[in-house]
Write a structure and sequence with these properties.
Elements: E1 11-13, E2 16-18, E3 25-29, E4 36-41, H1 45-64, H2 67-83, H3 85-96, H4 100-106, H5 108-121, E5 129-132, E6 135-143, E7 146-150, H6 156-169, E8 173-177, H7 185-195, E9 203-205, H8 210-217, E10 224-228, H9 231-243, E11 247-251, E12 257-260, H10 266-278, E13 290-294, H11 298-309, H12 330-345, E14 349-352, E15 367-370, H13 377-380, E16 387-393, H14 396-404, E17 408-409, E18 411-415, H15 419-428, E19 433-436, E20 451-452, E21 455-456, H16 463-467, E22 469-476
Parallel strand pairs: 7-8, 7-10, 8-9, 10-11, 12-13, 12-18, 13-16, 15-16, 18-19
Antiparallel strand pairs: 1-2, 3-4, 5-6, 6-22, 11-21, 14-15, 17-20
The chain binds NADPH dihydro-nicotinamide-adenine-dinucleotide phosphate.
């Protein structure tokens, strides 16, 4: 490590590191070894009060700045993140266990993209003029006020930036609570934003478990909540936000379908299935974990997939050659193991993998089940690990009905060389993000989010601005005003 994993203090509030050791200790564990690499403390009620008070106090002056000035700070932070990509990637690898081969291209890099993109948009935020005969009205696009971001553990740097960048661009203050499993990376995002010139109080990080998130969400001084997490947590957070009629963005779980037709380029289809199931050891919300393969090419697909999986390099995540790392935690590993057991018990055919690796840390083999049927647990529930379920299909109509027969709607993909079928299938998917002959791209320029239980609202792209700002309408009368008496 170029710098120690133990942060200077647990929280970042009002432009500085803050500690309160009376909060419950949270041990940070390196998933590749099981070693404790840092300890932070959950926020106490006093910390929650301090962060809300200082964030609210800072927000109005920030919103009053020209967008160009807000944007300049975000773009400077983006440059700093890119310049520090190596150190940030090493930290992300220690926080999550994801291989450096991934983190060095996907995490701080994606965060920097968000800061740069929304930094650029900040100066473009305007209202409009509406002529009404001689009278007229105009709209002002205004900040919401104080936003709370709550993150999952799979992309701690990216999530901290995807929520922080649009919030700050629109003139809001942000309090971010990382997952207790990965508390380290968001602190670095806060540090960099402040070094880039962000005034104190506007981007804060507080640690804690669900109850800290709950305290933030239910505070009447908070105007908006953006959660990345599971559907059960989403239900709780959405309900708490509803009490205060707060704005929400919910980025929740999925069980996304990936359709492979018999006219697809097989090698590309196998690549898509690998990217959509085994990147980040399968801990990606939009993963295409129900892989529907046309009966005619099923065995050829499974053969090539197994050959390609043998090329996975599993091991020390800091070795640049490693392409497959551990599960984020022992608990997550056990959850995934229980799904593998269920898959076997319910009669799915284990094609490859299925076992824990005989080494320290929380390593599981990339696992593929074939002959999976729609009613099996592994085809219905989000596993959030490296477990692919391969199902067969005969016709487009049949597979579309089955692909959409889920309560989730985060993502979906199709591999085919038939142009019209590709677009017909994409139009028919009940999902927020779809891929044609690709899987899991997430550029900041494109809206990202879910349909059905997978979420509400969109992150990224111009659409995120709608979710971090509100319109005020101002009516202007030019002549005399008539009244009935
Ligand atoms: P969880 O839902 O368990 O937790 C998400 C966050 O919410 C954590 O910071 C958690 O804190 C916090 N939290 C838990 N309970 C409450 C509460 N009552 N009030 C406020 N906050 C609370 O998700 P995981 O961290 O396990 O992440 C995995 C899930 O996230 C998967 O379902 C995955 O699909 C989803 N996800 C969705 C993405 C998307 O963009 N749609 C992207 C990435 C992941 P703590 O961890 O400390 O308990």
């Amino acid at each position: 490590m170029n710098y120690p994993t133990q942060p200077k203090a647990s929280h970042f509030i009002n432009g500085a590191y803050v500690e309160d050791t009376s909060g419950t200790p949270i041990k940070v564990i390196y998933p590749a070894t099981g070693a404790v690499i840092a300890t932070v403390h959950a926020a106490t009620p006093a910390i929650v009060e301090q962060v809300i008070t200082s964030a609210r106090a800072a927000q109005r002056a920030w919103a009053a700045l020209p967008g160009t000035e807000r944007g300049r700070i975000l773009r400077r932070a983006a440059d700093m993140m890119r310049a520090r990509n190596h150190d940030l990637s090493v930290l992300e690898t220690h926080d999550t266990g994801k291989p450096y081969q991934e983190t060095s291209v996907a995490d701080a890099a994606s965060g920097a993209d968000a800061l740069e993109y929304f930094g650029g948009l900040a100066a473009t935020l305007t209202g409009e003029h509406i002529q009404l005969g001689e009278d007229w009205a105009y709209t002002r696009r205004e900040a919401l006020g104080l936003c709370v971001g709550i993150g999952a553990w799979n992309y701690p740097t990216q999530i901290a930036c995807w929520k922080g960048a649009p919030a700050l661009a629109c003139g809001n203050a942000m309090i971010f609570k990382p997952s207790e499993t990965t508390p380290l990376c968001a602190l670095k995002v806060a540090e960099i934003l402040h070094e880039a010139g962000l005034p104190a109080g506007l981007y804060n990080v507080v640690q804690g478990m669900g109850e800290v998130g709950g305290a933030l969400v239910s505070d009447p001084r908070v105007d908006k909540v953006s959660l990345t997490g599971s559907v059960p947590t989403g239900r709780k957070v959405y309900a708490a936000a509803a009490e205060g009629i707060k704005h929400v963005t919910m980025e929740l779980g999925g069980k996304s379908p990936l359709l492979i037709f018999d006219d697809a380029d097989l090698e590309n289809a196998v690549s898509g299935a690998i990217l959509g199931n085994f990147y980040s050891s399968g801990q990606v919300c939009s993963n295409g974990t129900r892989v529907f393969v046309h009966k005619g090419i099923k065995e050829a697909f499974l053969t090539r997939l197994s050959e390609r999986l043998e090329q996975a390099v599993i091991g020390d995540p800091m070795d640049p050659a490693t392409s497959f790392g551990p599960m984020v935690s022992e608990r997550q590993m056990e959850i995934v193991q229980s799904y593998i057991t269920k898959g076997i018990e319910e009669g799915a055919r284990l094609v490859t993998g299925g076992a824990r690796l005989d080494r320290g840390g929380f390593f599981l083999q990339p696992t593929v089940f074939a002959d999976v049927t729609d009613d099996m647990t592994i085809a219905r529930e989000e596993i959030f690990g490296p477990v692919m379920a391969v199902l067969d299909f005969d016709s487009e109509d049949e597979v579309m009905a089955r692909a959409n027969a889920t309560e989730f709607g985060l993502a979906a993909g199709v591999f085919t060389s038939d142009l019209t079928r590709a677009h017909r299938v994409a139009a028919g998917f009940e999902a927020g993000t779809c891929f044609i002959n690709s899987y899991n791209d997430a550029p900041v320029e494109v809206p990202f989010g879910g349909a059905k239980l997978s979420g509400v609202g969109r992150e990224n792209a111009k659409q995120a601005i709608e979710h971090y700002s509100q319109l005020k309408s101002v009516y202007v009368r030019m002549g005399d005003l008539e009244a009935p008496f």
